[in-house]
Amino acid sequence: MSVMAMRNSPLGSWAARLFKPVSISNQYIRSLHKNTRPPVPSPTPFVPDVQTFLTLIGREMSKQASKIPSWEELFTLNSNQLRDAGIEPARQRRYLIRKREKFRNGLYGPGGDLDTVVDGVAQLRVVEVPINARGLTNGGTKAAVQTSSATLSPGMAKAIVNLAPDATTYQYGKKHLIKKFAHMKIHRGCQPMGPFLQPLKGSNGTAATISVQEGMWEDKRGQKVDGGERRRREVQNKKRLDERKKA
Fold first, then answer.
1. CA 207, CA 110: separation in Å to the nearest integer?
2. pTM value?
3. Per the record, which residues fall in region Disordered (predicted)?
4. Which of 21, 120, 183, 227 is the Cys-Cys partner for 235 at CB 3.0 to 4.6 Å?
């Protein structure tokens, strides 16, 4: 049977319908991506549970901890589900969603990227490590380090390391990775410097501790002056009229 006859036959039309190519629209693909849940991030040593996360982000969100019973729910509940759980008002829900997305993307506040934490407390200490240590390079350093100092040993660099809060010494090993900790830097060649750090007694300024505190990662709200931008002129005019009446 010729190709033309095959196309005109009932069998040919049935085969054409059966093997008709399927086109997937870009809109359909976008809808699939939209309905795909983003991954739930793993807790970190500094942020091991819901209570700690809500404490860190402040705005009294820690009082809502009982309404979000699990870590997975913290990162999967949408705004409507958070409302049904009792998270009010709406600005609190928006704030929580914004802060959890930053955490999901690895944008931590002070302490969030620490590896050694005991009961919510960690130590940061400035120590000497070999310049060729893992995480360091001669040209540009990945960690917060200092490669020039009057008291620095040859072939060594100063870096910030994370230790247990009661540790008094540090010994570098080849398996150690010297990493950069967000918001932390070396001050005056020997002191760890960063928000919420407390000097460690007996360390001569070379070590400090950081512990979980209420509102450490809080985004501070701006203060409204005279009712905010929209009503400022109206409020100020009213104040002037009141002052004139009193005068």
1. 16
2. 0.72
3. 211-247
4. 227
Which residues partner with 122 through β-bridges? 210
DSSP result, 127-155: EEEETTSTT--SSS-SSSEE---TTPPTT
Contact yes or no for 182/44 (Cβ under 8 A):
no
Asked whether residue 33 carries a pLDDT value surpassing 60, the answer given is no
| Separation CA 86–CA 64 (nearest Å) | 8
In Å, how far from its chain's centre is CA 163?
Answer: 21
Angstrom distance (rounded) from CA 75 to CA 104: 8
For 28, the enclosing helix (H) or strand (E) is: helix 26-35
Question: Residue 68, SS3?
Answer: coil
